[in-house]
């Protein structure tokens, strides 16, 4: 990363950081897409089982990854304030913390998985697939969270193209193993949706090992010597990471878990409705990679500028990010509405299921716009290390407003299952407004704490 002067230079630097992040996020999303898509072609029951398994796993994975992503603003501000010598210690402590977090989740998950599934009204085979998917996937939790730390470090240095290349290497591995294990090709066992969990776990190990290799040999990372120095566990540093990371993780968890919560409510409907909901949500999640990528880019660039006390530049990057996110979201919403039938056909060959997916796609198109505001704003707030209010605002918006509204519409109107998606759109809109108000307040307050020439 380099200091910029003109708006054109900032836009160029923003795109330089953003583009590899976007490719990385799309590739990561495509792994889930292929899990869902290929399971759907195995059977509607396999698709439903993967949907339930994903709805339980994804919020936990996203929330805990959000805690570890605290490495990004920590490292970016250290670079902006010329304290690079402290990076190695911070990253190693985050790696150690990631292992502890992984072990805790494995223990808790092992105790709670069956009771949770038992509470749901699932067909026997759907429950079997959901259980097997999660158990197999859990064998890759430790490398997944460790890679989250390494990727956050790589991105914070502005070397986002390396994250992109690592993820692009992993994508064909995931697809190939899915093909072999879901459908039982070339003598491999036919595992259906459970095979998607095995494929994900193997991919997590591969992506972690590739990241370790890249950090050891690539020039941009050598001076930090991450794996050349041993740092003893520091509870104090873990506390600092958690103080910043837990609010970030909770904010992400509340946002992602609302979709999982809706999926769990969907278990009261028939298998076709569950499958259609999951397919539409999966494609919407792929489109979500655009504002999510802009969110990450803003965390890096705003954190760098705030660390260097260049608050005017931080505000300009924020405006660029929000403007780009909003413009792209309008484009994706229009495209989704125009081609929803064709998109739906990617998930199934069953005409009835395709029509049901297409109906869900209509609602998915509308919350793209709210996501385009709320998500990048959270990225900017993380760059300022202002994270505590965000998780409170997301909790209120999604869980106190969005989910209850969806439940009422779904159960007391003719919209039925589609009512939950109306609730999602309502919660996201409230979140966008409240988070943007918080960001404007933080920017005004920051001006009072730096010299006038830095403003």
TrEMBL record:
It is a multi-pass membrane protein. It is found in: Cell membrane. It comes from the Bacteria. GO terms for molecular function: antiporter activity; xenobiotic transmembrane transporter activity. It holds the Pfam family MatE. The chain crosses the membrane at residues 17-36, 56-79, 91-117, 129-150, 162-182, 194-215, 244-266, 286-308, 320-339, 351-369, 390-412, 418-441. InterPro entries: MATE_fam, MATE_MdtK, MdtK-like. GO terms for cellular component: plasma membrane. One of its GO terms (biological process) is monoatomic ion transport. Keywords: Antiport, Cell membrane, Ion transport, Membrane, Transmembrane, Transmembrane helix, Transport. Multidrug efflux pump. Belongs to the multi antimicrobial extrusion (MATE) (TC 2.A.66.1) family. This is Probable multidrug resistance protein NorM. It comes from Paenibacillus kyungheensis. The lineage of its organism: Bacteria, Bacillati, Bacillota, Bacilli, Bacillales.
